[in-house]
Amino acid sequence: MEIYKNRRMLTGAALLCTFALTLSVLPVHATDSIESLESQTSALENELAGINQDILDLSNQISDTEMQIEILNSSIDKTQDDLLDAEEKENKQYEDMKTRIKYMYENGNASLLEMLFSAKNMTDFLNKADFIENLSDYDRQALTQLQDIHQEIADQKEDLENQQASMQSLSEQLKSKQTELQAKAVATSTDLDTVNAKLKKAKEEEAARLAEEARQRAAAEAAAKKDNAGQVDGTGGGTITTDGTTVSADDLTLLAAIIQCEAHYNYESMLAVATVIMNRVESSRFPNSISGVVYANGQFAPVWTGSLKRVLSQGPGTLSRQVAQDAINGSRLAAVSDCYFFLYAPSTSRSGVVIGDNVFFTSW
After folding, report:
1. CA 3 to CA 204: how far, in whole Å?
2. Which of 67, 85, 96, 216 is the 20 to 30 Å CA partner of 295?
3. Residue 243, H or E segment
4. 355 pairs with which residues across the strands?
């Protein structure tokens, strides 16, 4: 009987050893592999989120750049019209001067002497002499002034065209970068799918391993219980059981200057521009100050071209200041009361409300 008990104990010990040996040969790197794959998944998800955010930021930059290009195109068209107007005035002044010179040449100095000697007294003589001299000086000064204006407008047009080329180049660079990021997002998404598939397989293998361990553990425990039961009843039988807005004076001057640059000298056109600016100040989509709105990147061409700076240095006109003060006091042009943008009307096909030379619209 004692020998039989010892034999049963040796059998149980052998089963436990076999179970331990079986566990020792199963893969021990499964958990590490899952942790590694989960770490890779997290890193790829963060990278993909970053790429998508970069794509969104680039899309916003591209939209802003395209808006600035359209504004520049509008300013170039307006400057071209101003240049043509200056050329017409210059040519007319030149033709008028040639007519006077031709008259003087054909009639000789006699007509001038006649004018001088027809003087009734010395005062009249000096007045006629001054008139002849002033007429000549006027022609020279008027022509020089027109030529200067013509050159200033031509320089401004060249500056705008250079800015336009720069903005178009920037837009192309941003679109190229956006394409690269989109390709990178696709590649990262593919890598993420691959890692997720590996992670799923690793988890399935881990579950199978744990299930096999549980099965073998249950078998060993059952065998041990069977041995213990045999020791109790001496027959080897038994059963198995398991456990279950304040506005400053500087802002007033700035508002007056920008509306003077953007609109002709009539009250309605200026108030329309002022209405758009004040609409932006009062909207959460734009800066909440006049200076913030005016100097916002790429919004008003006079800021880039230097026109605004010149008007500020000279001081805005009386009408401009009056319109600015009225706008600050609450006056709005009803026709554009819901507008936030405008462009030089002859340069765009956009629909909207035309006031003066500008077309006003609600959204870009």
Report:
1. 46
2. 85
3. none
4. 358
Domain ranges of the chain: 249-361
Tokens of 343: 């462009």
Highest mean pLDDT among 56-60, 73-77, 255-259: 255-259
Rounded to whole angstroms, the Cα distance separating 302 from 255 reads: 12
Question: Residue 262 — pLDDT band, cuts 50, 70, 90?
Answer: very high
Q: Which of 43, 47, 67, 57 is nearest to 177 (CA)?
A: 57
**Contact 280/230 with Cβ under 8 angstroms?**
no
Residue 225: C-alpha distances to residues 129, 232, 241, 243 (Å) = 139, 11, 9, 13
Residue 54 to residue 49: CA distance in whole angstroms: 9
Report the candidate in 282, 285, 258, 280 with the shortest Cα–Cα distance to residue 339. Answer: 280
Cβ(117)–Cβ(132) below 8 Å: no
The dihedral built from the CA positions of residue 116, 122, 128 and 134, taken in this order, carries a sign that is positive
Share of the chain above pLDDT 90, in %: 30
- Could you report how far apart the first and last alpha carbons of the chain are, in Å? 100
By CB atoms closer than 10 A (0-12, 13-18, 19+), residue 297 is exposed
Residues, the chain: 364
Secondary structure (3-state) at 361:
strand
Rounded to an integer, what distance in angstroms lies between the CA atom of residue 149 and that of residue 126?
Answer: 34
- Of 64, 66, 59, 69, the C-alpha closest to 177 is 59
Task: State which fold the 249-361 domain adopts.
Answer: Arc Repressor Mutant, subunit A (1.10.10)
For the stretch 139-157, pLDDT in tens is 677 768 777 887 888 888 7
- The residue among 87, 74, 229 whose CA lies nearest residue 160 is 74
Could you please report the per-residue DSSP string of 292-348? HHHTSTTS-HHHHHSHHHHHHHH---HHHHHHHHHHHTT---GGGTT--EEEEGGG-
Q: Give residue 73's pLDDT.
A: 86
Dist. CA 279–CA 15, nearest whole Å:
86
pLDDT of residue 202 exceeding 50: yes
